[in-house]
Structures
1.
Amino acid sequence: MNERVVLRFPLLRRLEHWVMVIAFVTLACTGLPQKYPEAGISLWFFRLIGGIEVSRQIHHVAAVVLILVTLVHLGSVGYDLFVLGKRPSIWFSRRDLSNALKALLYNLGLRRERPKQGWFTFEEKLEYWALIWGTLVMIVTGFFLWNPILASSIFPGDWIPAAKIAHGSEAVLAVLAVLVWHTYHVHLKHFNKSIFTGRLTEEELREEHPLYLERGPEPRRVPEMQRQKRRLWFGVGYAVLAVLWLAGTYWFVTAEATARAAPPPIPELAHEVVYQTPVPTPVPTPAMAAAGGQTPTWQEVGPWLRAQCGYCHAGRHGFGGLDVTRREGVLQGGVHGPSVIPGRPGASPLWFWPQREDHPLHPDQDGLVLLWQWIAHGAP
Amino acid sequence: MEQKWRKVLWLFGWVGLLLMLSGGLMWKSASAHGQAEPGVGEKGPRLHQGDEKVPDANCLVCHQESGLRTALPDGTPLDITVGYPDYRASAHGQKDVACVDCHQDIQDYPHRPVTATTWRAWLAGMNQSCRRCHEDEAEKYDQGDHARAGREGNPNVALCTDCHGAHEMVDLKDHPQAVVQTCGRCHADIYEKYRQSVHGAALMEEGNPDVPTCVDCHQNHANAGPIYRTTFHLMSPEVCAKCHADKELMAKYGLSTHVMDTYVGDFHGKTVLIFEKLYPDQQTNKPVCVDCHGVHDILPPTDANSPVMQANLLRTCQRCHPNARSLNFPKAWLGHYPPDWKRAPLATFVHWFYAIVIPLTIGGMAFFVVADAFRRLRRRKGEGES
């Protein structure tokens, strides 16, 4: 038997496949652990590559690769269809549906003959269109997850959780489909190497694509003259598409930053670290409920402070450098730093210090409530 | 002649004096080495006799006197009157713990001089006595943030007696309100916030025992907070989940227990979970429960002042996402509820779409593949036979 071989995949298609393999595996490996963060294998993976944020970075890079290889594929398919005038042999037809049914019946032993299939079998078409569908879903939903602020300014907010569910579920569907369908048909059933070598042997053709052998390669339908013209048009059209696509990808990646590189949240406790730890010697907190909602001002607090503390802490030479006769003096404080932290009475030395056991005099309780309120309202 | 006699007399005088001195010294040393008179020490009367403990009555001879006051070397006045009836009513007094069991440094009268120069330093020294009996608590205390701040030189950190009291010691167990008030004596700002929070109000006003007090989140002796521990922020959702994922407890108040799984199901929670499991000491910029809900001032999401109340939500998001200006943005978060047809119809549709499509597709593919494989095997067998 002479070893007639047929070119099935030109170099560009083979390269597309390789890029697709790398992008798909990377996306699945970095994406699925994010969907199932509690699984042991996910933790193992995150530890291996250095954490969930690293995983997200890699996922984003692979996503860009996927978007770009889609552009390349659109170009090569467009060139084949428009310039070379090839038949869209990958297109689904009613015949594929009946082929699928016949194949199933044959497998179940209900038919004697396997259906004869052409250049692309229905199994291959199913896989191809599943990939197209999946890529489309992933790019659209991925945009929502990558740019939630932008997306929610155009679409309703609950589209984002919907996109998240779709993104994760589609990923599971795609990975399972590849594991079941792809693995069986091109690895287990018969290792079909044509996507790496580009070639199919006549034996393989007879087995899988007998109709192609019967009918032979399709004739080129576009005359040379017209092809040159079309090539020009295609070049212009594809250039426009490529520019738009690349610009869109750039926009996709850079449209918003804060969802990923947000500043850390500022917990209330971050402010708790003041130059003094909360209170040196325990002091009681005032009964805030008793005090009304009015905001005391310096007009009320000032005279009380002068009467209570002014004997020692008055003027430029007040004890500890503290001058309670002026609001600025109180805010500025003394040798230990400011005596009032506006809004934070419990952390303000002016409130707790005179209540310490080692302070010579203790201010009266009613006044302390006033002082607390004054500092709590920002020491106006 | 007279001169001679005078010299002899002088000699006798000197010798006699020497003899008397040495004899006296010998007698003195003999008495010191021998059996000393009971109750009389070198410096004065001892407070205890033999191995017996000094009875409290000995101390009270002086220390019951009212208005008794001394001063530390730095001039800090120190009240040394003991309210003995109060002490007898305290946790220690009820168990007949004697004065000198804690006041280890005092065995004699006059007392040894105080070496501590300040009030806090003196207190810290006194608190070492607690360790003799309360070893476990002391060990935990040493792991806590108070102890750490103390080691770093802050003299004002809470010591045993700052929380438990000294002579008027009370058992704080089963007194959640007293616990909170005790912490509030130093952490007054936080106390005031807590008191007005949904937890604090329930405890302080209604005496509800279900709500967390300070120590439920921060521990009592081995106390921990986010200032010293980066791990605290990351593990805090687990603290909240202790109660908020408890179905029985939450059913009492009609609260959802989906808070934790919906949180972990989204970007924020996932990241925090992974960080907590892999790198607990690292910080992430993703928020934990308290970053949105508030910490000590936490309020129910229906409260107008709650940061997670519908109308306040966008402002809360903007703390990390300053560019978010659309009111749609907070709606991307389904509020700790799993999607349902009423709240999020699209998300629910997508969920059900895939819940049906995935098994159908994969099941169909698997069916075809298995059937195909069997057929091929059979055909190969048939070929082999024929």
2.
Amino acid sequence: MENIDLLYHARGESKFIDDLRLPSDALYAAIFYSSTGHGRILSLDLRDALLMPGVKAILTSKDIPGENQIGGVIADETLLAEDEVHYAGQPIALVVAESPECARKAVKKIKVLFDELPVVLDPREAFRKGSFIIPPRIFSMGNTSLAWDNCLVIVEGRAETGAQEHLYLETQGSVAYPTDSGSLKVTSSTQAPTAVQRAVSRVTGLPMNKIEVEASRLGGGFGGKEDQANSFAAMAALSALKLNRPVKLVLSRQEDLRITGKRHPYSSDFKLGLDSEGRILAYEVTFYQNAGASADLSPAILDRTLFHCTNSYFVPNVKATAYSLRTNLPPMTAFRGFGAPQGMFAIESAIFKAAEKMGVEPSYLQEKNLLKEGDAFPYGQSAEGCRAKESWLAALETFETGEIKNRIEKFNRENQFFKKGFAFMPICFGISFTNASMNQAGALVHIYSDGSIGISTAAVEMGQGVNMKLRQIASAIFQVSLDKIKIEPANTTRVANTSPTAASAAADLNGKALEKACNELLERLLNAAALKLKTEDKPVIINEEILLKEEKTGLKWEDLVKMAFDERMDLTSHAHHITPGIYFDKLLNQGRPFNYHVYGTGVVEVTLDCLRGTYTVDSLKAIHDSGKPLNPLIDRGQAEGAAIQGLGWLTMEEIAYASKGPLLSDSLSAYKVPDVYFSPGELDIRFLKASDNPRGIFNSKAIGEPPFMYAIGVFFALYNAIKEFRPEVRMDFTAPLTNERLLLALYSKEKNTVTA
Amino acid sequence: MYNPVIFICNGKEIRTSASPTLTLLDFIRRELFLTGTKEGCREGDCGACTVLIGAGSDDGSVSYSAVNSCLIPLGTLHGKHLLTIEGLPKDALSPFQQALIKEGGIQCGFCTPGLIMSVTGFLLSEKDLSIEHAIEAIAGNICRCTGYKSIKRALESFLCDSGINPEAGEKRMESLIENGFIPPYFRNIPELLRSIPPFAEDPEDTKLKPYFAGGTDIMVQKQGEATDINFHFLKWSEERVRVEDGFIVLDAALKVSSIMDSAVLKTCLPQLESCLGLFGSRQIRNQATLGGNLANASPIADLANIFLALDGRLTLQNGDQVREVPLRDFFLGYKRLSKTESERIVKLKLPVPESGFFFNFEKVSRRKHLDVASVNSSVYMKAIDGRVKFIHIAAGGVAPYPLYLKETSSFLEGKSLTSGIILEAALIAQSECSPISDIRGSEEYKRLLLRQLIFAHFMKFNPELIYSPEILFQAQAPSKIF
């Protein structure tokens, strides 16, 4: 099975935005952005910059012919700042010049004076000031206030998780070309061509039919290009429209780090109550989401936090409150997991603390409270096809966790300065856009007269292998070899009004639409074959041969297509798919928001160097329920990659901002992500056997996001290792657990309260 | 117009009058339209722009190094062979490319060409083709998609059955051609390189120009501006590390990788090679120089730290004038050196270690590899029957410049080592330093970490000295003392 994309990648022939050959009259844009977190613009002096040789124009908000607005969910975000800036990195002006260097040099010549205003970076401070993006969201089930009385153990605490930079290796970028009849063609490194089309339309004032948006492939997205590609495409489009020349805007790494939003930092308060058996009776949690300066996708991310606040556990009484808070940071945005990891980290912290208090292992409480078939989630849906316990038990057996425990105990007895720790991490992740209307997709299939096939959908290939999966689907239906099938770049003129490639759902949604379109064409072709063979029976295609009653007819795929063409048959089909049976009432916060859930259990093992405060992640293992994986190689790669990205989030990846707002970790020498040495020696993710999923395409399950959350176990594994060295240490649940936090925890003076 | 820079790119000669300070990455992508080489960070921290540079030697062989093309100015390419992803065999994928595809080691594809170039460099230049060395060779290549496991699988699967001649050199090269890792035109490269005339330096240009050694720092600091600066390019030293009059002598223009490979150092200071494995990445070590790391005077410079402890002495040269300065007196303040603008570091001399010496280097950074230290520290000592004959300790990241811990070292000299003495020494070290809170850690953390690293030195020297964690807790928490 050949994944054609990989062949081009391996030869360095794949074309990303910055690789496109441009016409000789192309210009290059660079962004002048705010250096302060909050301020009124007193003056903006462009004179010196305009005098720089090669500079063609400098555009500000005044040059926008349409609306200076790119907020998709809430209209609260300008493309270019007007009178005020609300975060450091906020775009103020665009320099368009003959070369990128020239544009960047001119950017340095722009002078701006700010009247500095108070900067708020902390979501709790924003809460006290009442700076809400949306009104509070509350999910509840049962009655927590009544439940506390029945609890033998109640623990309370705080959990904090930090921001995370996507670090897609290809930075944000776009090229816009003026085309015939006052139209624009925009190529963008975006996960959401339709969202780009809307944003460009809004900013330029052109109707959507005059804007063609194409995304051929991305050098990584991870959510960072779901909403935030819009502004850069709109800037390129605005420049192209104004100057009537092609304009390229590709961010440097530093610009990308400074300007774009990250995973939302959360600060959360939890309260968990359990009975004497360790059954969780009640859970209250309050999430303070640091949304940054504008809404972006924060409201949807906030909801997904709530949807996942009880992770893989059944909790009869839940009250979960979530606040999305406006601060002076870049607008935080989608990132693999989309709010769920933050929610899961809070309940895992609560369980860890409860286990500590009860003198049991956290895994005892985790296992005891796993969801069972039919158990209710706090939002009305109940667990169907629940594989929480199944994956847990499979992990115990497959990875011989009893052995791991014995081995670790022995190691810890024999070593004074090195301690091992391990932790379990069960996951449960809902699949669907929680905004029901987004669960739709279209597919356009052409069979060309030579028998080759071209497929267009809204799925954007960004490394997750969706192109290959789509080819497999078409190949299975038509029974033709993969090399006959080409996946076209996502393009708004071929498939319109599409949802972003996000929520792990691209293969599901686009695959289902494709299945439908292929089946329609197959039906036509087989009818044509029956006519030609003069039979009432239905022929079938196997391996490009037309068979009738299991006998070869001599007719091949190419013959059939040629014949259908000669018969003037339509060899093109378009189909539309919607996920059936999902709905959600946003007032009651009840419904059936998810098509299905993905389950799994991870086990993480670490060794802590208690002298230096450094560690190695020895292993991350998981039993993952992927249904019947459509492509096990791709799915394994997704699972492994997600898990390592998660390990980074919880350990070394730390975003730091100066008190006035500018990003301090604004280079790859300051912001570190996992490298080959960090990657655990044992990274072993296996698929749960004998699983299926009638709701997924060909019984598969979505794979992109869920495995990210196995990594949460690393925090608790490290905490356990600390306690092996100093049993009395009680550490805050603050991630990332950097080397610094570890060492300070290991050698804290005050024995019981470590603010690490 | 500039004097032409001539080199071989893949199989073809390139002659260009572009500015010699133009970043090689930009030249490759924009002038040669070879867009397989990617820009990921422009600071040598991701490896997406990795290319190979082959330098011919008198014996006709060409030695290849993987480098970050974002940190290389075009001018240094003159007379060299540049290999980009496009220069690999066209007809069929190499066994490594095939293995990557088979094992799922490619996802978005953006880091892939750089990764493949690093592995090709490994195959061309590494003596020991073990999986460990292969991993070391790709440690400077960041992949955000795969989590690396599938890449490691690919390395393992092709290395176990590659048909590559383990003997480095010409036979290796032949076997790489035969097995489809590199194209046959590699056979012609030595001849093509010989035909390139030496670079025509402009004789009239006598202006004082800044010296440019490896460029791994200046190309980052002067991003975009470097093309406007007229550098005086220094050539990487081919001179071997040697012993003269009781001193190990290292040319300042030695690459870090050449220091690691030095036979003399492997004998006299066998610990050094693994210490330097924590310096940058393979690509950076193939570029960064000893002199550059010292002249840079970064407070956390690893080489400065190591050679402070090893009692290094610098030779500075200005025309005919030559003087020697102990490294300990070289660093005066933040980025301030005991060196005039026209003086150049030419040599570093280290006393040949006495038998029975102990050396140790500790470095803690956010990520173990390819990262800047929060704190680093080196110790060089000799003890006879537990009594310290001499000791030198250096610490980085805890002062505005690479710090020699003078008080701590002199306190320990002549002492009989006990856990109590080491505790005391650690306290002195903490009082000698003045860390600041920054992106690499808080002041409190750095103080604590320095103490821990001093313990680590002595634990390695003699584990009995720090026989129980209780000893560590006896030392007071640093924030309470100072």
3.
Amino acid sequence: MNVDQLINLVYILAALLFIIGVKKLSSPKTARQGNGLSSLGMLLAVVATLWHQDIIGYEWIIVGFLAGAVIGAISARVVKMTAMPEMVALFNGSGGIASLLVGWSVYHVGNSLVPSTTIPIILSVLIGGVTFTGSLIAWAKLSEVMDGKPHVFKGQHILNILILLILLVAGVFLVIKPTGTFWGTDVSMYWIFILLVLVSGVLGILMVIPIGGADMPVVISLLNSFSGLAAAAAGFVISNNVLIVSGALVGASGIILTQIMSKAMNRSLGNILFSGFGSVVSSGESTQQGEVKPITVEDAYLILEAARSVVIIPGYGMAVAQAQHVVRELAELMEKNGTEVNFAIHPVAGRMPGHMNVLLAEANVDYDKLREMDDINPIMPTVDVAIVIGANDVVNPAAREDKNSPIYGMPIINADYARTVFVLKRSMRPGFAGIENPLFFKENTRMLFGDAKHSIQGLVAEFKS
Amino acid sequence: MEFIYLIFILMLSIVAGFELISKVPATLHTPLMSGSNAISGITLVGALIAAGSANETVTIILGTLAVMFATINVVGGYLVTDRMLAMFKKKKEGEDKS
């Protein structure tokens, strides 16, 4: 057996470990072990690659590896759980640009640029470039370097179509004539390639800019999928099966998450990507007015103290207020008081899929208490108190009742079916989608105004006294 | 023929991916995302070959940067996923009512 075959055998083993690793993610009990197996697969693949016949020197590998390992390890260690969406966006972007660079360097070397190589090169540059700049914009929006509003401008669709045309034409030219000069001119085809790189980056920016903050879970999932597809394309460039297998796994994972997110918002992916949602709907007339009934911490305590079952519904506001730890403390105190406490988590609560679950896990909440929307809705009418913490659209009954509402048809957690609803909110400002929430005006709703963390600390103090 | 064979692998992997990932519970979606993100850093294999076979300025720059970015993706992705998954635990009996 020669070295090449041996390397390929190790790649098969690595691919197997990735698959087993993902399979073990199906339960929180085995998930950590699964991640360990997956990283072992990565280590094997990397070590085996070092024996590849084309590798003539290690100095640049070491430089790049050390730099990347230090940056990656430090950021993974210091990042706050509330900032996880931003972090994942940045890691995504790194993967994207790495695939772009791999494609570029193979093009630069320029050996055997037949269509079965150039097409994957173009794809890895295109998808990698879109992933990179798209992830950077997503990061900027999530970390509020840029405001989270959708940015739409006149002629945006035409510009997008124009850019797609440029990419298509440049791609076709490069497949037909990968090197040399452009027909009848002195322009080197290399410039066409550079154009492809740059325009891919522009496309990534234009794709994410019109998408609002509340739609970020979908964008992050989609970019995640893209980073996988870019890796798979890079796999075709260098005819490497382990890249194709893992790229496809990641691509599939991102697509499934994207679907779940879109479904949870009752909107199609196309609608999310192209509508600039949130920029146009805030004009909806607010007919469902009524009286808002505020409540004090003391009165809220008395009701909670007497409640037999409580459901806590967290949203992005809980992350912003960093309230997950006091929420857990409150839940424990209520349980000690004999109350049954559950957490109801909407699929799009937060800024990425599963964001709330990670925060509550960080605060040491048992994962059995984290219930999905479909589990909790049937028992909602038997619940004494539903506490809504920094969530808005995911509990908006307009999605169920108001046919004119832009979110009509979106599945929601039926908080309003509980006997009493507490809404913890800073002010009466509408949520990210800019939609009025009739929940706030319902007969059984009490508003607990103020910073969520502060209000809950107040409740905790009442329970302790 | 090799191209066809690679397409074959691609198709099988996509099917396997859909099967496996639809079984991941919603509570683990963030770790799934960061973990699968780390797997997509497998492009590091391509980056290593690019950097290791580079013999002129442009390819050295492209290759080294590719290795760096892919390593950020791999190392950061796996570590952060591990950090998150370590937090998902069930309380032991008797520990909670303290």
